[in-house]
Amino acid sequence: MSDYALLARQLETLLDTRDWLTNAAQTCAFLTHEIGDLNWVGFYLQRQPRTLVLGPFQGLPACNPIPFDKGVCGAAATTRRTQRVADVHAFPGHIACDAASRSELVVPIMHDGELWGVLDLDSPRPERFSEDDQRGIERLMEIFSAASDLTKPCNVTG
């Protein structure tokens, strides 16, 4: 079980620039090394209408793009709510980028009331993510958002 209070303090210290790209890359590396049983950590960004595009990540090459009507990431983008999936194979419309992934946690990242993107965590272990993990990762994404200039390079409506 992760100590999310400690991870929050460490992430606040790590994110020492306002540049979202640097902070996203640092956050992915940090989460990959500090949280166990993960096989993919990354950001998908809303850079096209109702579509997520791949951002910084750690892990195997990933699926790109992801429409809002597909997969766990699409569900998080559409609902603007965290998706915690115990068994991705039971999730309707799951996108299998890595056949080893068994559970998933996707946290939407909002900026000025608009969807900026999502953080996607995959695990090869079924039922990997608990409610504590969800709250902890949501808090880490609040820290990421507060530390970063989350601007969109183009005018996108959701």
UniProtKB/TrEMBL annotation:
It comes from the Bacteria. Gene3D superfamilies: 3.30.450.40. GO terms for cellular component: cytosol. InterPro entries: FRMsr_CS, GAF, GAF-like_dom_sf, Phosphatase_reg/MetRdx. One of its GO terms (molecular function) is L-methionine-(R)-S-oxide reductase activity. SUPFAM superfamilies: GAF domain-like. Residues 6-158 form the GAF domain. PANTHER family: FREE METHIONINE-R-SULFOXIDE REDUCTASE, GAF/PUTATIVE CYTOSKELETAL PROTEIN. Belongs to the free Met sulfoxide reductase family. This is GAF domain-containing protein. It comes from Chromohalobacter marismortui.
